[in-house]
Design goal:
It is built from 17 helices and two strands. By secondary structure, it is an all-alpha fold.
């Protein structure tokens, strides 16, 4: 009997010691397998990011282009809402600014900041929804977080004026999600969101070009999905539009596009240098990383044996944006200062946004090993 007791006591102690360390790990692992787990992590990240951006931006006030909306858009005439701003159809942000002025006035700036922060959080949340359907919850979190915390793109995240761009992006991605439904109701809603994207900023033009590619690749039976927003923009342009395109800048398109790609890649992986991007920091790492990224994409497409239709859509969107921006902005200076270099903060947001979505499409069907997950966690 004594020998049995001597054997049983250490066995019980070993069991207790094992449970003390293994049970929480097993519980955490089991929780991580639940479908809701990545959504909870994303929700916590969204709330934390929103609170940080809101608190970090205290003490700001109206700046630069915002004064054009505050001072030059008085009254309620049609032209007040439809006259272009730097060539952009900006109906949505003008309406938002006038509504905020009516409610909050100019004494309180935080409501303006809150709008752009919420729209930024919406963009990150939509990236998650888009990715979750394709690569699962945890990879969707890995796709959303780099955009949510894209520090070099601070201008779009904390400057209320850029609500125009994040509204265009949110509406554009929402339209793609609705097109995924493949039914009439989804197509009608997608067309309406494309109109909203066009009415928010010139970025909506590139989004509409990409959506047109998506619709055409699905077959010619639904051209009205993109015809309606094109008609809205064409009507506005005939009455109020002005062009900033300068085709003598076509020679600058290749270098601008290459630098925009490089700086977007470096921003996504956290190697853009200072929070306010500059050419040296953005491109020193960005150029070699862009070469690697292009090689990886080419390898993946060769493995697939085809170019997925949505990759065409997203690629057409970001390439249209870079080309149109180069033709309208590349090399423009004011008192010796380059106004719109390829590594501008606002361009990094757009580039990073679509590069992440392209990566999601290329990762469909890929099972990541422990080493790949570890690399993602470190990044």
């Amino acid at each position: 009997m004594a020998s049995k007791a001597e054997v049983s006591v250490p066995a019980r102690r070993t069991g207790r010691g094992t449970n003390r360390f293994e049970t929480p790990l097993r519980a955490a692992g089991a929780w991580a397998q639940r479908p809701i787990a990545p959504r909870v992590v994303l929700a916590v990240a969204l709330l934390a990011a929103g609170a940080f951006f809101f608190l970090d931006g205290r003490g700001q006030t109206f700046w630069y282009d915002e004064w054009a909306f505050v001072l030059d858009r008085r009254g309620s005439g049609v032209g007040t809402f439809l006259e272009p701003h730097n060539g952009h159809l900006s109906l949505v942000p003008i309406v938002l600014y006038k509504a905020l002025l009516g409610v909050a006035g100019m004494d309180h700036y935080w409501p303006y900041r809150l709008v752009v922060i919420v729209l930024h959080m919406l963009c990150s949340g939509l990236i998650y929804l888009y990715a979750e359907r394709r690569v699962g919850g945890w990879l969707a979190v890995a796709a959303a977080l780099p955009i949510l915390f894209l520090g070099p793109a601070w201008q779009v995240i904390v400057w209320p004026f850029e609500m125009a761009w994040v509204a265009s992006l949110a509406a554009g991605l929402g339209a793609l999600l609705l097109l995924d439904r493949g039914d009439r109701r989804g197509e009608v809603a997608a067309s309406a969101l494309l109109v909203l994207s066009i009415l928010s900023s010139g970025l909506g033009i590139a989004i509409l070009i990409g959506a047109s590619a998506d619709v055409l690749l699905r077959g010619p039976r639904r051209p009205w999905v993109v015809a309606a927003p094109f008609l809205v923009y064409a009507t506005w342009y005939l009455v109020y539009g002005e062009s900033n395109l300068a085709f003598n800048r076509l020679a600058k398109v290749p270098s601008f596009t290459a630098d925009a790609l490089a700086s977007s890649v470096s921003a996504l992986v956290g190697l853009a240098g200072r929070t306010i991007p500059d050419k040296g920091a953005s491109l020193a790492w960005g150029r070699p990383l862009a070469v690697v990224a292009v090689a990886v994409v080419a390898w993946r497409l060769i493995k697939l044996g085809r170019v997925p239709p949505r990759v065409v859509t997203l690629g057409a969107t970001i390439m249209s944006f870079w080309v149109l921006t180069a033709i309208s902005r590349a090399g423009v200076t004011f008192e010796g200062f380059t106004l719109a270099p390829a590594y501008s903060s606002r361009y990094l947001y757009v580039g990073g946004f679509f590069l992440v979505l392209i990566a999601v499409e290329l990762l469909r069907g890929v099972r990541l090993g422990p080493a790949a997950w570890a690399l993602l966690c470190v990044a």
